[in-house]
Amino acid sequence: MPANDLDFVLEGYARYNAGERTPTLEFFHEDAEYHTSSADPDSAVHRGIDAIRSQYQGWEEAYPDLRVEPQEAKAGDGKVFLWVRFSGHGAGSGVPMEMEMAHVVTVEEGRIRGVWGGHAMIGLMDDGSGRRTTGPGANNLERRRWHGL
């Protein structure tokens, strides 16, 4: 078992990219929530391990070679803040897809309580100018710095 929340969350991403594609109760609380970005075509709050598994399965169907790779990660106060790169190829078309977004993962009692992606967590970061990001265009910034860590 990893020594801290940051190592725990990074291990989860590593295991996903190594082929462990089904979320388990080893990593998630049974009643965990996954909040997808409001910019996502299937934007929603996925409540419970079965809904989260269904979300992951949808990713796999659309992008069978999907990788979700942390580019930066920081932890503080039961949260892990990550900048992640999604990449893969469309299942039917083979067209490459790549995007980057922020994730905030909350960890309680050694398991994930919630994940917030992209716009779902705007206000936790700034755009480098010292002002907090707001609005639908905020997710288009190339990189962000985190407040409060």
What features would you describe in this structure?
The protein is of the alpha+beta class and 149 residues long. The chain has a single domain (5-143), classed as Nuclear Transport Factor 2, Chain: A. Helix content is 18%, strand content 38%. The protein has 2 helices and 8 strands. The protein has helices spanning 5-17, 49-62, and strands at residues 28-35, 45-47, 67-76, 79-89, 96-108, 111-117, 125-126, 145-146. The strands form 2 sheets. It has a 6-stranded mixed sheet with strand order 2-1-6-5-4-3, with helices on one face. The protein has a two-stranded antiparallel ribbon with strand order 7-8. A hairpin with a 2-residue loop joins strand 5 and strand 6. The radius of gyration is 15 Å and the shape is globular. The two termini are 24 Å apart. The relative contact order is 0.18.
CATH architecture assignment name: Roll
What's the CATH topology label? Nuclear Transport Factor 2, Chain: A
Number of helical stretches of at least 4 residues: 2
Measured between the Cα atoms of the first and last residue, the distance is: 24 Å
Mean pLDDT: 82
H/E topology pattern? HEEHEEEEEE
Estimated share of beta-strand residues: 35-45%
Shape: globular
Secondary-structure-based class equals: alpha+beta
Low-pLDDT sequence parts: 120-149
Report the radius of gyration as a whole number of Å. Answer: 15 Å
Instruction: Trace the largest sheet across and list its strands.
Output: 2-1-6-5-4-3
Helix content: 10-25%
CATH class: Alpha Beta
